[in-house]
Amino acid sequence: xxxxxxxxxxxxxxxxxxxxxxxxxxxxxxxxxxxxxxxxxxxxxxxxxxxxxxxxxxxxxxxxxxx
Length: 67
Known about the structure:
By secondary structure, the protein is an all-alpha fold. The protein has 2 helices and no strands.
């Protein structure tokens, strides 16, 4: 049979080199942007929770009135 070459070590090195190169391309947001986006997400989640709670109360009231 023919000899096979084990390229596993070279593939791992190339993978990690490529990974490092991709991480270098990332543009991380600054603290102000992260703070603004966090506030937007939290306020949206709270608003949606309140809307769902109000709809739930209306449905409960409607069902108790009908039954």
